[in-house]
Amino acid sequence: MDQVFDALTRMYGAKFTSQWGEYDDGAWLAELAHLPRHCLELGFRRLRQEVSDAARAGDTAWPPQPVAFAAMCEPRPEDVGLPTADAAWREACDHSHDPSGWRWSHDAVRMAGQAVGWREIHSTTAQSVRARLESRFARQYGALVNRVMAGEELTPRHLLESDNNRTAADLAERAGREAAAQRAEAEGLPDRMNASQGLAMLKAATGRA
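^ thats the sequence. predicted structure below, dont judge the formating
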């Protein structure tokens, strides 16, 4: 941590030492201890770019808080030539109708889309369901990005959900759940119901008092 403080002091001078002193009281270590050296170097490159941009604009750059610097040290997909999570989701949505016919920007995008399920991505229109699909996609894509950053080859893993690994009954059940969720949203119904609510709906649907 002494090296981190030395680097920040060289970069910001008295603006840093007046706020944090010459030695860490534990606040910086708590945020940065889990980060490997190459991530810290990435954070410092980003800080230097901020300082340079501020100088060109005639502004003053101020030292970051520990949690903000830790976030700057985290690798991003674009650091290794992958699309951002938002761009990857848009690509998956745009080509979910014909995933085998599209030349994907990166295999991680295709694998994340396949894990979520191309049929769901293509056919789901209910906003609440689509938000859940996007969240699932982001988790899958994030895990794949981490593997790429770690230097791994992207080969399908058992944990990645694939339609090829599901039975016809599994696919039918999942499609039924998604369709029910869409109908519920369209009719203004809650995502989940207790037993009493479900019984009341069933009676109403069958005309029973």
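The chain is about 65% helix and 0% strand.
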